[in-house]
């Protein structure tokens, strides 16, 4: 396969829809993104990295960080306990909904809705003492980009407009499902969501899932089974309330963020990271989904 | 791979849990099943068929029939319209719930919850004039078992105890999302759910999904894309409100029924059908999930 | 108090809003009503009857019949059992919602939402053998209008468009909370809802609640306590999902119907029945609520 | 009527059920209450005050304070705006639920569920600069008890265990329905809920609702209409998710608190305040409801 050609074809497929949808504007820092920006990167398990468009431009990774917090928490030896505190079923409701959380007594449905990510962040904070720092260092090491960091303005803005996340965290705490103080957990949550990275950085950082658990340096982060399992949770829960549609169209495990990025995994082969700031109603990038749909349709790279 | 050895290992893994859980007893005909019965069959795209345990015993396929109604409806040329009448997102609520149906104005969340299957059955009835007959003939042709048929006692019993399904169907009709009379649609729905088949029959009948849309006789039922897409919907929605857990443990597209069967697809390789009547709380067979989990863990046959 | 003057003042208050809102049009027979029609009747415990506007015009009483089915069911000696099958709490959801019914396992929240009225009709059918006939005969006797009857065209039309009520009834039956066949219960339900009566007829027929349980002929239908209790249920649950607002504005127990009528009770004093076909979003007559609000504000006739 | 005799009869009726139910124990200070304690006070518009049992013992008024915050907020000239920020319909869900709040976009259903009381407290804080102080001063003036005050230990304990209320407040803030900082609003909320008062104090303090808006000193707090309207909201929403049952049994407007108190209004006649710490599942005092039920049944003092 000519990777660069296929990336270009995917970009061409996405071009007509760029700007369709709505840039997340609940905080000013995100609202300033250019709705016509677009990047797409491919990293293979063989070490190749390619990209088209704005693939080296940094953007706010937002919920894509949840993939890494989950992996790092599961990499600890006490990981099994995590699944008593958070489920792994699709939620059927928006990513920041409180409804299901009440019906299910403070146990978030899965690690990728906001409530679940708060619980995973809490666990990672207990395990490491610095949840956001652990994510940042992991991303730096895997991407080889030592300047990758939290955008402090974004983190501060998230905190300032974060009443709904504060509600979720206090609600979880009311069910005794937090180990650390609400304020500390939210601080780390905002800090890892506000990391800025490029398509290139994220494609490289996600390769451990394509390599069945192995990091860039060959060391093992996760067992083969756990890597497979994270892919399963990504496929069923990784793209907000549109996971079914994403599986139907793209057919790959993936994690999206309201910054417009989507990181997708092709087990055994590599990763794709697409970015376009304009979002559909479910909160997924219109351009990124379109490009990934085209890429997998053209190449047959799908898990199905 | 020594298929028979792997099947035997999977059966051995399931043996300790056989009888754990609860046989569906909302109708007498199902309640009479032996909770310790167990069968497992494997069919490959190369034409091999193997089985262990009670793999040639007939059981009530129940919701597994929803996979075939969907495939047959999508195989028609007017299939695209179907996705306006039924969604493809995981539901997050029990398979026979009315709550989501009301919130979403009569559009069932996906084709595999009861409400969605009623809509698909309605469509197939319009397309063929005999929805249950179409499913039966397809299963006979693919399995090569000409005596495969609806168990009329089961169908009659379902209808007699079917107030909740009648409620779903009338509710859907109240949103103008049925083309045929409620009674006719329900009649076909009960008839295809009450088909009796063996693990062997179902493994063979499901092979078109492993063969990317090709039937046993080599003719094409579905496009490659549509076959891939049905697998995606199976993975995200095929095992009731435990699709996330099934993906996590087994990692294959699959469809379960309250008769205790689960039909799973290994794209490009083959199918597995496991059967054990005792169900977990989500309505999936405890023995079948355990056996499939063991098989995929031992063999690495997973989509992730 | 000059009753005729106060009725006229109330009519004057309502006149500007007549036609505001929307005539119920889910069946043709109701949709044909004149949105500018308006009537208001007053009946006192002393035997006076007055009216203004179209107070002697017949209209479809619809849900107002639920007040009478409840009273007649409670008048039987086995009445206490009824409160195990239906609650008496406000519902917080629309009158024909299935959501709460599922959350509460087939026990309708109160006798005045559709689901609750189906259960009460079922009970009255068991008690009398002819639920709709019992309501009709009671209304004839109390109003002194021997020609008062079910509008068969309306009843037939309700049945034809009644998929949502059929869904409710089947759903209740799925929880074993119906004693009679779904079709029989629905037939009686539609027949008593389709009774046509005038403001005059209904004001007279409701007087037993102002007389603490005594019928027009002086015989006792209900104990003083039970009459008081029906008034309490009317106040908290009688005007669909706007009972709080009706209590706030009008301050009287009352029952509304989508035909545009509202029957209100002034305990110890009398009854008021207002009618105007155009409805607000909760399903209550805009003109009738406005007139009753004006009447109670001007006269101080309120329970508070 | 011999008031003391009727109070004694009501106490006698309640005695057998004292201790039935469960003392609120989510904070230690409440959990220490004696489940067999019981008091009942009556204050009439003519100036009589009577009591039986522990009617002069102080207890934590908890949600009964919500009645006073509402009255004081409505007494301001800008009161109409309040009804755009909080509804007046019964909720149909538990008093501290977040579900309805999400469905209704941050507008609490009524002023007496926790979410609604947070909004009213926020408004009163804006109007007065000291919401808890305003409630305290009003209660002191009306009861003539200058030592009546917030129990600081209870308030501190509420704050410490108040994750669910913090979740509600942040959630409301996320819909821009708070004017003051979350922490400030919650501080005042806990402070007025933690006021300690006796049955005697509360019966006197509530008399303005029986006097159609007039305070103890003859000055007008509320218009006649507004007093009537608060009574209406009390009747439909004042006793948590059991307002329908309370109306059915007692037939009076009333407000309950998890401290075990219930303050009821007999418009034009007087007030009753009953107290017993053991609560039913809805959060209302078993003894207080029983005593009020007996009193109104024996005396005919009911609004119906």
TrEMBL record, chains A, B, C, D:
One GO term (biological process): L-glutamine catabolic process
Matches recorded under InterPro entries: Beta-lactam/transpept-like, Glutaminase
GO molecular function: glutaminase activity
Domain of life: Bacteria
Protein keywords: Acetylation, Hydrolase
Matching Pfam families: Glutaminase (PF04960)
EC number of this enzyme: 3.5.1.2
Catalytic reaction list: L-glutamine + H2O = L-glutamate + NH4(+)
Binding-site residues for substrate, renumbered to this chain: 63, 114, 158, 165, 189, 240, 258
Family: Belongs to the glutaminase family.
Oligomeric form and interacting partners: Homotetramer.
Protein name: Glutaminase
Organismal lineage: Bacteria, Bacillati, Actinomycetota, Actinomycetes, Kitasatosporales
């Amino acid at each position: 396969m000519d990777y660069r050609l296929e990336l270009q074809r995917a970009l061409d497929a996405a071009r007509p829809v760029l700007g369709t949808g709505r840039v997340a504007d609940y905080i000013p820092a995100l609202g300033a993104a250019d709705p016509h920006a677009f990047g797409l990167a491919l990293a293979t398990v063989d070490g190749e990295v390619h990209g088209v468009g704005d693939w080296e431009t940094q953007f706010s990774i937002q919920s894509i960080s949840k993939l890494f917090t989950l992996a790092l928490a599961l990499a600890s030896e006490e990981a099994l306990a995590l699944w008593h505190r958070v489920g792994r079923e699709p939620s059927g409701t928006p990513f920041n909904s409180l409804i299901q959380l009440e019906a299910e007594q403070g146990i978030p449905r899965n690690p990728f809705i906001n409530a679940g990510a708060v619980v995973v962040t809490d666990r990672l904070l207990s395990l490491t003492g610095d949840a956001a720092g652990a994510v940042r260092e992991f991303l730096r090491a895997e991407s080889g980009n030592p300047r990758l960091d939290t955008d402090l303005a974004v983190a501060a803005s998230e905190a300032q407009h974060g009443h709904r996340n504060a509600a979720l965290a206090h609600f979880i705490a009311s069910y005794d499902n937090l180990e650390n103080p609400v304020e500390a957990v939210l601080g780390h949550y905002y800090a890892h969501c506000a990391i800025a990275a490029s398509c290139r950085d994220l494609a490289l950082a996600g390769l451990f899932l394509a390599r069945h658990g192995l990091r860039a340096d060959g060391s093992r982060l996760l067992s083969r089974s756990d890597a497979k399992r994270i892919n399963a949770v990504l496929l069923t829960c990784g793209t907000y309330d549109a996971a079914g549609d994403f599986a139907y169209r793209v057919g790959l495990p993936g994690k999206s963020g309201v910054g417009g990025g989507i990181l997708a995994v092709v087990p055994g082969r590599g990763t794709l990271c697409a970015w376009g700031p304009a979002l559909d109603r479910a909160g997924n990038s219109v351009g990124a989904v379109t490009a990934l749909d085209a890429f997998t349709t053209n190449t047959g790279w799908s898990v199905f």
